[in-house]
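so my prof wants the structure for this chain in the tokens format not the other one, which i didnt know existed until like an hour ago. anyway here's the sequence
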Amino acid sequence: MKLSELSCGKSGRVTAMSALPTATRKKLMVMGMLPNTEVTVVRLAPLGDPLQVRVRGVDMALRKQIAAAIEVEVLS
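here's what i got, hopefully its the right format
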């Protein structure tokens, strides 16, 4: 499942970010979004872009295009 498909309040574990450009992937990894890291969607903007996600206790905003390139496995 893609990160952009998670609804508010749902959590997932990052499985892959290979579809992202190298520079973008490196920036996200520096901010703590690494494989096997838990990510929670906090809220969506009214028009759906950007998403607010929480990674390792830090909130960040991601464009929907970037979130669509991040694969997650849904946590129950």
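also thought this was worth mentioning. The chain has a mean pLDDT of 92.
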